[in-house]
Specification:
Rossmann fold
Length: 280
Amino acid sequence: MDTQTQAARYSAKDYKSAIKPIWCPGCGDFSVLSALTKALAELQLPPGRVAVVSGIGCSSRIPAYTSMYGFHGVHGRALPTAIGLKVARPDLTVLVTGGDGDGLSIGGNHFLHACRRNVDVTYIIMDNQVYGMTKGQASPTTAPDWEGSKLTPEGTGVNPFQPLAIGLAAGANFVARCFTGDPNNVAEIIVEAIRHPGFSLVQVLSPCITFRPEQKDWKRLVRTAPVEFTTDAARAARRLMTDDGFNVGKVLYKGSREPFRPDLGGSGATVADLERQFLR
């Protein structure tokens, strides 16, 4: 894939695989996949220099639908896998795709420390406030009074996880929110997230109309964020804490922390050298 001449330009279709997505009709994740490939085409990144890592869930199927390097891991472990890859191969553009259940429940601790470490990866978290793949249980971002699950017929009674506010407090270097109803805007924000150094967090409101049909109303609830991004974490935190979750379409925060780049030493060992160690 990297043998194309410099004169050749990549299009969005160059980043898509031949595997047809099996999401439910109307799923917002279709828009995210489209936006992701458009963003990579805008950046003109060779597909062989990009890696997409995911965990478990509907949105975590994205690596299979792309032509880049991909890793579909276990539940909640996408971020440490991606961070290890980026540290070992800093020349790669490393993206993480997943949902609110995968990233904020079993993967919640990894999420906090990924923000804190500030390795240069981009995390695209598709938030539909429900476990869609396992048939509609409440997720960490579900409102406490949602009665749509048989497991919690009277609601969870637990305040929802606030991914952007928590990510900002934990040290994310770039914070943004967008909506799948505007895939061109999602693509624009992904471009900015990839370009910005450090850990970039992009929350994408991605309706699950199968188990949360009321989310069709998000089209009329979302609004363009009224302010431009800030470089002041305290100001960004105040904005997020007074936000209803439907201000979308703009970057909220851009930090200036240097990405974490550990010194790997440079032993010069080849794959053959490593193989010989295991064959002794």
